[in-house]
Amino acid sequence: MNKLRLAIVSCCFLGCSPFAPGTVGTLGGVAIAWALIGTGSMFPVWALLIAAVLYAVGRPLGDWAEQYAGKKDPGIYVLDEVIGYLVTVLWIDEPSLMTLVVAFFVFRFFDVLKPPLARRAESIPGGDGILLDDVIAGLHGLVLMIAARLVLPDLGW
Predict the structure, then answer these.
(1) Could you tell me the pTM of the whole model?
(2) pLDDT tens track for 2-52
(3) Residue 104 contacts residue 85 (beta carbons within 8 Å)
(4) What's the 3-state SS for 98-120?
(5) How far apart are CA 134 and CA 122, in angstroms?
(6) Residue 90: what are its φ and ψ, rounded to 5°?
(7) Helix (H) or strand (E) holding 137
């Protein structure tokens, strides 16, 4: 049962990477978003639905992950990065491949930077504390991506 829980919280063991597990784990979000290309105007609906399901599944596993790893917000737990990335790429319609790449770096920037509201969310106990800081980082990323799309519309977003 622990192996199944670990597979879930680490996004198929991406979070078990010995090097930069959060960055590697974010690739799970990229893969999901890339798989949704072709859904057109339903892209944000599917991305949001998947993010919500992952949140619902990952939230109760937060306490388990912290006990398993022996620390708060352990590196192996990367569902938060997957969800935060999916929030960053929520668009009116599906993003381009270039957008997925740019969004990866934008999300990682805000995830590492931890804007003040995200930093405060980290203090919430359990799964919500693990997940919400990345949701907030994802919202910051989404705002920046929308601004970039508005300012630079000819880049093929």
Answers:
(1) 0.96
(2) 999 999 999 999 999 999 999 999 999 999 999 999 999 999 999 999 999
(3) yes
(4) HHHHHHHHHHHHHHHHCCHHHHH
(5) 9
(6) -70, 120
(7) helix 126-151
